[in-house]
Amino acid sequence: MGITKQELHRAVSEAALSAMISIDEVIDEDNDVRKYTSIPDPHAVQPERVFFEQVTKEALVKAVERLPEKEKLVVSLCYFEELRLTEIADVLSISVSRVSQLHSKAMLRLHGAIMSVYEHL
């Protein structure tokens, strides 16, 4: 090998003092070795999140389409036109409490529709 026995023994001794670890293993504060298959990117798009957002949007669109007309109108005025309940009451010529009732019923129906979709996933 082109080295003396003494150089070989020194190289073997130095190698014995070192430890080889994988770059996939991290030693934490307690000297425990933990294996990582990947390092998550906090800015990366999470496919499961995109999927659930898409499913939720589709379920909401279908559920809003199935609402009774007055409830659909209240939801539209509230969330798309951004009117307050008092303004919606004026537009529809009904009491604020009736607008509140219609809004509550619509929210319960929409919540039920979303929950039904997630139960089937």
Largest sheet: 2 strands, antiparallel
Q: Unreliable stretches, pLDDT < 50, 5 or more residues?
A: none
- Tell me, what is the CATH class of the domain at 47-119? Mainly Alpha
The computed structural class is mainly alpha
Rg for CA atoms: 32 Å
Fraction in helix = 55-70%
* CATH topology group of the domain at 47-119: Butyryl-CoA Dehydrogenase, subunit A, domain 3
Number of strands: 2
Number of helices: 5
Strand content: under 5%
Q: So what's the overall shape?
A: rod-shaped
Q: Please, what is the CATH homologous superfamily of the domain at 47-119?
A: PhyR, sigma-like (SL) domain
Strand order of the largest sheet: 1-2
Corresponding CATH architecture of the domain at 47-119: Up-down Bundle
Distance between the termini: 65 Å
Along the chain, the helix and strand elements come as HEEHHHH
Q: Taking all residues together, what is the mean pLDDT?
A: 85
Structural features, described:
- The protein has a two-stranded antiparallel ribbon with strand order 1-2.
- The chain has helices spanning 5-17, 47-66, 69-80, 85-92, 96-119; strands spanning 25-27, 33-35.
- It has a domain at 47-119: Butyryl-CoA Dehydrogenase, subunit A, domain 3, CATH 1.20.140.
- Helices cover 64% and strands 5% of the residues.
- The chain is built from five helices and two strands.
- A hairpin with a 5-residue loop joins strand 1 and strand 2.
- It is rod-shaped, with a radius of gyration of 32 Å.
- The chain is mainly alpha-helical.
- The model has no long low-confidence stretch (mean pLDDT 85).
